[in-house]
Amino acid sequence: MSGNKLNEIPPSIVNLRHIECLSVARNGLKTLPKELEQLGNLRTLCLDGNDLTELPDFLSRCHSIRKLSVRNNKIVKLPEDLPLMEGMEILNIHGNDLTSLPESMGEFMS
Fold first, then answer.
1. In degrees, to the nearest 5, what angle opens at C-alpha 53 toward C-alphas 99 and 80?
2. Contacts of 15 (CB under 8 A, 6+ apart)
C-alpha cells in the first residue's frame, strides 16, 4: 500500500489477521487506527514518509512487531514505552522532528 494517497488506514485492516509485514510508506497518514493493535502476527511495520506527528501509545502494546520504521515523518515525541517493546529489534526514527528521546531508550540500546 506504499506510495498512494491514503490519508488513513481503514479499521477493516483488522481482517488481515495473518499479515506479517505492512508497508504504508509515502502516503498522507496523520494517525494510525487502534485496530493495528489486533494484528498479532505483524512483524514489520513501515510508516516512512507520512505526515505522522506522534505515535499512539497503543503501538507500545504491539508485542509482535520486530521492526518499526517511521523515517521521514514529523514526529516530535515518542511514546515513553516504545523502546521497551518486547522483541523489538529495529527501530528507525531517522528524519523526524524529535528534540528528545524517552529515557527508556537507553534500555533498548543496550
1. 60
2. none
The torsion defined by the Cα of 52, 53, 55 and 56, in degrees rounded to 10, comes to: -100
Assigned C-alpha cell, 18 = 495473518
The CB-side HSE value for 101 (13 A sphere, CA atoms) comes to 15
Model confidence pLDDT, tens digit, residues 2-51? 988 889 999 999 999 999 999 999 999 999 999 999 999 999 999 999 99
Q: Report the C-alpha gap between 23 and 16 in whole angstroms.
A: 13
Q: What share of the chain is helix, strand, coil (3-state, %, to 5)?
A: 20, 15, 65
CA dihedral for 47, 22, 59, 88, sign (positive or negative): negative
- pTM value is 0.90
Local structure of residue 109 (DSSP, 8 states): H
DSSP reduced 3-state for 91: strand
Query: What is the rounded CA–CA span in Å between residue 85 and residue 66?
Result: 9
Query: Could you give the CA distance from residue 32 to residue 50 in angstroms, rounded to a whole number?
Result: 11
